[in-house]
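B., you asked whether I could sanity-check this one before it goes into the benchmark set. Here's the sequence:
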Amino acid sequence: MSINGTAAYADLTGVPPLVGRAVRVARQAGFAPSCRPEQGRLLYALAGGAETIGETGTGCGVGLAWLASGARPGARLVSVERDARLASLAAQVFADHPRVSVIRGDWREIYRDGPYDLLVLDGGGQGKSGERPADPHRLLTPGGTLVIDDLTPARHWPPRFGGAVDRARMHWLGHPGLDAAELRLAPDLAALVATRRFGETPGTADR
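And here's what the prediction gave me:
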């Protein structure tokens, strides 16, 4: 999610109908931090190669709508939102899409339906960092893709955030089970995209 992501759709045309629906719900709800179009287009492209897709931090479902719009027929999508009101609104967006599930709960609920071919860690840091960040060995199929979104593009090495080394970003860039790279999507927006390596021994991190 981006702080002013919903506003980025104000003059935008040609978005998938489901994305437009989610954006309208976000506007009506006064929910500002939706997935930006630049990020959405990346998710749309990546979704086409996945059978099982997970996301944390649904919000009003804008990012999930990009994923669902790009997914192949028969793909299964699961997203988790901790805010009950937002989860309810997002569920309404996907009421006609039975293969899309919105779960109300802590981000760790995403574990129960994994592993995923594509996992998007979204929603203000849920699973991105902290003492127990998401475990890609448990959440991704071998060769599966992980997306860490809503980053400010790195301009130094090591990348910095708030005047200090960005340890959360370094965790993913240096993760021994992943091949990761940062993609600059706009002058002020970047994402990390990582692939789980084949043949890696699963980690032992707890939920």
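One thing to flag: The longest helix spans residues 17-29. Otherwise nothing jumped out at me.
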